[in-house]
Amino acid sequence: MVLSTPTGSGKSLVALGLHFKALCEGKRSFYTAPIKALVNEKFFALCEALGQENVGMMTGDASINWAAPVICCTQEVLANMALRQGERLDAPYVVIDEFHFYGDRERGWAWQLPLITLKHSTFLLMSATLGNTAPIEEKLEAYTGRKVSLVWSDERPVPLDYEYCETSLHETVEDLLEGRRAPIYVVNFTQREAVEVASALTSAKVANRETRQRIAELTRDFRFDTPFGREMKRIVSHGIGLHHAGLLPKYRLLVEQLAQQGLLRVISGTDTLGVGVNIPIRSVLFTKLSKYDGEKVRVLSARDFKQIAGRAGRRGFDVRGSVICQAPAYLIEAKAVTGKRRGGGARGQAKGKAKFNKARRPPPGFVGWTKDTFEQLVRRQPEALVSGFRISHGMMVAVLQRSRVEVGKRGGYGALVQLVARTHESPHRRRRIVRDMAVLFRALRRAGIVHVANHEARVDPDLQADFSLHQTLSLYFVDAISALDRDAPDYPLQVIGVAEAVIENPNAILQQQLKVVKTELMEKLKADRVPFEERLARLDQVSLPAPEADFIYATFRVFAEHHPWVSEEGVHPKSIAREMIEHTATFDGVIRRYGLHRSEGLLLRYLSQVHATLDQSAPDTAKTEALEDAIAYLREIVRRTDSSLLTAWENLAALPAAAQVRANERSSPVPRRKQQRDLASEPKALRARVHAEMRVFVQALADGDYDEAARSILQTEGDAWDGARVAEEARGYLDVHGELRFDPARVRGHHTTVKPFAPRVFRAQHALLGADGEERGYVEGEIDLREAREPEGPLVRLLGFRA
User: What per-residue confidence (pLDDT) applies to 662?
Assistant: First the structure.
């Protein structure tokens, strides 16, 4: 079924009915969406409606209760499952929300792939801005042999009124508040602008005293414990929400929960908030009508505009919703200057004229809009969805990992050809994709990842079960690390450097990193009394830290000679995760050092990507003990930074025993080999995980942060270690041995030992260093794996300090 009706018309209720139908039949159902914030929100909504033991979630950041009959996941997760399992995938019912992403040029393949792979699944395709879907319906009917039902309407349950404003943003917001048109969603197109607007509006009278007191009560125990936490707390305490992808998940979740209780009258966010997240909105206020699309700044498409504007008006609460557009800021400023100029004398008029001439010029690269632009967007219908299917190494490997029975008599490559033949592309485009696929296939064979025998193509059986090439240049990553010396002392750092080079640049982080490097160099040059002109010349030569750049560029040139399709991709050497590993830096430490307070979520996602690349794209044969330690440490950083989704799920209610086991065994803030790994039977993986946790604990001890140390270890009923108890135990050790030292260069490898103590129970010891750098005793802990294969959260229960 294709369900194309406006926001607030009941699409979610139809989807809930399909999930309920699946539960009644004892079958599994999926809900997919394009962004993690929407998946998270729907996950909790379905937990409340269907029972938390019946609902699970899988995204790039979290995997909770994955064996549940109802699964919420991002669209890419379902697409990759469909690639790997094909018709074996247990997905009889699938709800695809925000289906208009089918036309996205970068991600649209993920929306199309399940439709051409899961022939026997029943799909519910939903969006408020689909446009003409007749070509897609015809292709679905031809492939499945079943009729596609279309439910379409453009009649909104809550009508909208439209307004074009030439007052300042601050004045517009105050007018809306006075006119009882809150809650207001202020739409920005960059994360920086969203934060600046939210911060600026704290000076307006947004929330009354009672509301602010209620917010204070509800957030009293909330941990605003990251560098951006203080600013976030200040904004929220004024009754203002902030919501964008650069925030940590726990802050976004807090804003969603407070907004749903009616405590936030203004929410400043990016346009991603318009993608279905359940935050009550009466008025949508556009600060702009143009945005950067990845290549250039352009005026919003009709689909983008209607998708965001459609958030206005709450069914059951509002009689009408409002959509307001601000005129360009420079014109509003010019108008204000003009008004002042008219009211002054000759001298004031001359001064005002100068200001007017300066103010009326738009900023460089500005793409403007007018009231007419706004009115045209209101009238226009969403553009038709266009297929943009593409093939990649990762997709090919996933298909080739299926068994012969599943891929058919033609072998693995035949399955790839069949997949392309079913795409919604034109015949000409399909032929082009097949040609490109042949080039990629030959590259996989040269790399030894794919072998052909008896006319069958198969992935190398020695690779780990979850081997993946999810980055565009993952094949280069595998090829490059094979040229490294495994016995070199900095081998793990070199591998991390190559992994970072194949991941897209997090520009906001790199810009701040370069700024800090230049600032530190300038201070050093000043201290050395270097002449000013020479200082400037030296600064011009500064580039971003990239320790492995020479090796990466040299190996990439060789790789590109044999793989000409990568010439336009290029590699991007950088050192963010490597620097953290090398110096055992904490997440908060990196945020503070580089001033990334407004981009905490960006750093978290980047570290998750690096972890996934190292864990899944590096063959097991390339993983030394030291590299396993580094991978485990990255995982520990990600887990400790934000596990709010798992915590919120566990706090919904006391879970049934079966759900508790699934939660303990399968939950993780980063994707890993949950179905294959049992830590009790994998000593190497267990030691790496324990080593990562213990080094965090010891680092916190050395810093004197006993509360942080307590949070890094397992707390059990009847044996809780709070900060005070850890401090008391540590003081006993310090009285005997003096200063406790933490040396990043000496905590790799032999400092952690893990030995069996009882069936599925282990004892761990981590050496402690005294002021002279020599070992002075150790800290001891216990790991109990009798009830779980790979528990989420800390593994180690502290036993104490030993001489």
Answer: 43
What is the pLDDT, as a whole number, of residue 612?
85
pLDDT given for residue 405 in this prediction: 46
Coil vs helix vs strand at 172: helix
Residues in CB range of 621: below 8 A, 6 or more apart: 462
SS3 18: helix
Q: Using an 8 Å Cβ cutoff, are 603 and 579 in contact?
A: no
Name the residue among 552, 551, 608, 598 with its Cα closest to residue 576.
Answer: 608
| Positions of the chain with pLDDT under 50 | 347, 352-357, 404-405, 407, 409, 653-676, 746-749
Q: SS3 for 65?
A: coil
Taking the C-alpha atoms of residue 310 and residue 312, their distance in angstroms, rounded to an integer, is: 5
* C-beta separation of 8 from 314 below 8 A: yes
Q: Which residues of 510-530 are buried (b: 16+ CB within 10 A; e: fewer)?
A: bebbeeebeeebbeebeeeee
Residue linked to tokens 């950083």: 637
Alpha helices in 346-460 (DSSP H): 346-359, 371-379, 393-400, 404-407, 411-421, 427-446
Long-range pairs for 752-761 at CB < 8 Å and ≥24 separation?
752/687, 752/690, 752/691, 752/694, 752/695, 753/687, 754/683, 754/686, 754/687, 754/690, 754/783, 757/782, 759/786, 760/680, 760/784, 760/785, 760/786, 761/785, 761/786
Q: Tell me how far the alpha carbon of residue 380 is from its chain's centroid.
A: 33
For 419-440, the DSSP string reads HHHTSSS-HHHHHHHHHHHHHH
Distance of CA 534 to the CA centre of its chain: 42
The gap from C-alpha 23 to its chain's centroid, in whole angstroms, comes to: 30
**753: Cα separation from own chain's centroid:** 34
Helix (H, G, I), strand (E, B) or coil at 360: coil
Pick the closest to residue 114 from 132, 87, 145 (CA basis).
Answer: 87
pLDDT digits (tens, 9 = 90+) for 550-561: 999 999 988 887
- Count other C-beta atoms under 10 Å from residue 321's C-beta: 26
- Crossing angle of the two packed helices 371-379 and 302-309, in degrees rounded to 10: 80
Q: Which residues contact 335 (CB under 8 A, 6 or more apart)?
A: 166
Residues 6+ apart with CB under 8 A from 611: 631, 634, 635, 638, 670
Quick one: which of 798, 782, 669 has its CA closest to 725?
798
C-alpha to C-alpha distance for 692 and 623, rounded to whole angstroms: 16
The angle that helices 393-400 and 427-446 make with each other, rounded to 10 degrees, is 80
DSSP secondary structure, 523-542, as one string? HHHHHTT--HHHHHHHHHT-
User: How far is Cα 112 from Cα 358, in angstroms, rounded to an integer?
Assistant: 50
Angle between helices 411-421 and 393-400 (to 10 degrees): 120
Query: In terms of residues, how long is the chain?
Result: 803
In degrees and rounded to multiples of 5, residue 285 shows phi and psi of -115, 110
Please report the pLDDT score of residue 459 as a whole number: 79
- Angstrom distance (rounded) from CA 800 to CA 778: 9
Concatenating the DSSP letter of every residue in 629-698 gives HHHHHHHHHHHHH--HHHHHHHTSSPPPHHHHHHHHHH-BSS---TTT--GGG-HHHHHHHHHHHHHHHH
Q: What pLDDT is attached to residue 645?
A: 55
